Amino acid sequence: MAEMNDRTREVFRRVVESYLESGDPVGSRTLTRSMTEKVSAATIRNVMQDLEYLGLLNSPHVSAGRIPTQLGLRMFVDGLLEMGDLTADDRAKIEGTLGTKENDVGSLLDRVGSALSGATSGASLVLAPKHEAPIRHIDFVALGPDRALVVLVFADGHVENRVFAPPMGQTPSSMREAANFLNAIAAGKTLTELRDGIAREIAIHRRELDDLASQLVESGLATWAAEGEAHARLIVRGRANLLGDATQAEDLERVRQLFDDLERKRDIVEFLELTEGGQGVRIFIGSENKLFSLSGSSLVVSPYMNADRKIIGAVGVIGPTRLNYGRIVPIVDYTAQLVGRLLSDRE
């Protein structure tokens, strides 16, 4: 960006801003009416050709104007994007959602997702916080030949239970044996700490556990493994917004594919890792995030923190690559900060 002269930088900025506003290619004659200095359409065409050669612009048709490439959008976001201020209306929508005294965090985050989707006209993602209190008790309950329930009671009184498929041939005694083994090593440990040490403990105590009980321990605790946790903690709202924004059959198919991936929670663990890599709002354009590579979508996401300044979740907005980044980034940032403060106050 620093190597561009003023005219080239202005042409590039105006092409991107016009595209983000309208979604249409921008022609040289259109730009002659808005440029700071008076220049001919031929001069602007030459500049646009140079930008196309650099990979920053692209021409969808031979006779059409230019649109920014993914690389061009990334350069614009990193170097030229001007952030707007959060409007009073957007602030009121978010604060109104979070102003309830309700104690159910799940319901609160569900409303956050709906508010974000409504305020941005995109689809929202909300990653709920992990529960990391020490474990008090673990139990397995048989529900049938191929279904069992694992129950976790945490030291702070929180209870979680999940249904899973246990190894074939389980007996009441093997379930008791597995639960007793876990309870003997789980005291005072968080689920993450227990999961990290479970394989090692099973290897050491293999002779004390028969194969069925060992398999039950591993398959039962896998219910809370990283992939499973992320699946259960993702809230998606606003599918209709993206479908409504798609104008052509191929666009609709890309959006449907995106939501199929989200519903199967494919690659959400990677999404978590990306948000936990640093503070502040992050923008992923198109294929920069594997989850959105086929849909032509962008993701604006920000982590939120607890009272100890530890990242515990994230909020984000999905939309087409021509998102109004300058407006949406402040909304996502403010929402993440507000959720973090609210959860910290509850702690």
CATH classification, class level of the largest domain: Alpha Beta
Quickly count the helices.
Answer: 14
**Class from helix and strand fractions:** alpha+beta
The total count of strands amounts to 10
By CATH, the superfamily of the largest domain comes out as GAF domain
The strands making up the biggest β-sheet line up spatially as 7-3-10-9-8
Tell the overall outline.
elongated
CA-CA gap between termini: 45 Å
Low-confidence stretches: 226-232
Rg, please? 25 Å
CATH topology of the largest domain: Beta-Lactamase
Q: What's the pLDDT, averaged over the residues? A: 79
**CATH second-level architecture of the largest domain:** 2-Layer Sandwich
Question: SSE order in H/E notation?
Answer: HHHEEHHHEEEEHHHHEHHHEEEH
Strand content: 15-25%
Helix content: 40-55%
Give the domain tally. 3
For the biggest sheet, the summary is: 5 strands, antiparallel
Structure explained in plain terms:
- InterPro entries: GAF-like_dom_sf, HrcA, HrcA_C, WH-like_DNA-bd_sf, WH_DNA-bd_sf, WHTH_transcript_rep_HrcA_IDD.
- Keywords: Repressor, Stress response, Transcription, Transcription regulation.
- Negative regulator of class I heat shock genes (grpE-dnaK-dnaJ and groELS operons). Prevents heat-shock induction of these operons.
- It comes from Palleronia aestuarii.
- GO terms for molecular function: DNA binding.
- This protein is an alpha+beta fold and 347 residues long.
- It has 3 domains: 74 residues, Arc Repressor Mutant, subunit A (Orthogonal Bundle); 156 residues, 2-Layer Sandwich (Beta-Lactamase); 95 residues, Enolase-like, domain 1 (2-Layer Sandwich).
- 49% of the residues lie in helices and 17% in strands.
- It is built from 14 helices and 10 strands.
- The chain has a 5-stranded antiparallel β-sheet with strand order 7-3-10-9-8, sandwiched between helices.
- Strand 1 and strand 2 form a beta hairpin.
- The longest helix has 22 residues.
